[in-house]
Amino acid sequence: MLIKKRSLAAWALTLSFLSAPACIEAADLTAVRYHSGTAHDRLVFDWSEMPRYNVSLSADKRVLTLDFSDAVKRYVSKEAISGSRVESVDYKVKDGHLLVSIRLRPGLTYKLGKLAAPDRIFVDVMPQQSAVRKPVIPAKPATGTKPARADMKDMMPLDFDGLYTEMMAPGVAKREYVYWDDAGKISAYFVEADKDLYKVKPVLAKGRVPGLQTTSGMSDMTDAVAAVNATYFAGNGDAIGMIKIDGDMAGTTYYRRTALGINSYGQPFMGPVSYEGSVLLGSVSMPVSGVDCERGANNVTIYNHWYGSRTRTNEYGKEYTVVNGTVTAISDGNSPIPADGWVVSVHGTAAEAFAGVQVGDRGEITQELGARWDKAPDIMGAGPRLVQNGQVCVTAGEEQFPGDIRYGRAPRSAVAILKNGNYLFGVVDGRQSNSRGLTLTDWAKLLVKMGAKDAMNLDGGGSSALVIGGQVQNSPSDGSERYVGSALILTKK
């Protein structure tokens, strides 16, 4: 929601919003998030329900005050907010009102808007000349002007109403598609990359598990041409999906779910995969419960270099360091992880089973995914499958996905292998007035329309983000980019 400014007094600029009925219960401010981007800084205020509020700007246009009536400041910021455009943010509770004062740096202006499900209010701070929002979809070329054939000859030949295509570089096409269905406006964003010029690679946030980073941050970290958020993750950054990078596992799931694999020749393939692992220490063998994740009760968890320098476990278990097939060290917890080996961390009944193991004993770790997957150096699992052999094929039930993923409209992300063999990353926005989101089936239909031969769903909702050339193309439903656990990137071969 874009709000225009108008003068109400000589000393201040005041805007009033009736965002809720006259009688409402006190709303809780549950979180405050801040992100500094290339074009603007964004503050996002998360609410238990949308409060009533007024906004005022001081005469020197340096202090923006948000006056939330009937609001309770349940959230207390632990870190001071300060950046290139926002100098400070202060809170004050007075007579049942929560006053939030945002001090802007000189020469800046702002935009304020609302987002629903969940209720959020955001403030964008930007230079004066950036106050006029650019359209989401660039204007189409004038009639008779088309990209040079040499630019498009290796891209999918798509041409339908609402689709805009722009060549960003040789072999890289950005596509934006806007249309309307029975729920309203739909805005979707895609990048297609020539298979002969570019390769797909899975990456971890900050290069490890657990880790949290924006998709654009991972794109910048790897100097990628494009990136899309990838698999599901826990709040601490642990992967909830199968990840294999450069031949080493970095995450597992015991559900049989769809994954994208890249073979040793750099060729992509897609299909269902599941993990089976076992640990042999001395003469005792037990199944692996997880890889590079938090150790659970009575579990066997294995850690490799993707988890960082240490296991960060407590002292209530036992850990065995394995290098070159031999147990080289035993400790109670927080063991150093060797660059060329593993740490086997056990707890409870698993610890009892391995109680007789000693330094020097045999140590073996076996991991099996299936012949084709075992040979693939890189795997990114997520799911469900959306498209198979050019046909809609949604396997959410078979892959045992919960209802919040299976049903309803939502922002979505996907990766596809196109009929011409090229790669496609895509997102569709949702939970916003300018894009209502899609069901899994409708998302699959759209991917077929974009030329997908095979496609799978990625983590969606507020995680959905597509980055091209370091810039986020869509409008994430959180109001700003979410910190996620992994991404798929496109880089030059």
From TrEMBL:
The keyword S-adenosyl-L-methionine does not apply. Pfam families: NAGPA. Residues 1-22 form the signal peptide. Keywords: Signal. InterPro entries: NAGPA (IPR018711). Residues 321-490 form the Phosphodiester glycosidase domain. This is Phosphodiester glycosidase domain-containing protein. It comes from Selenomonas ruminantium.
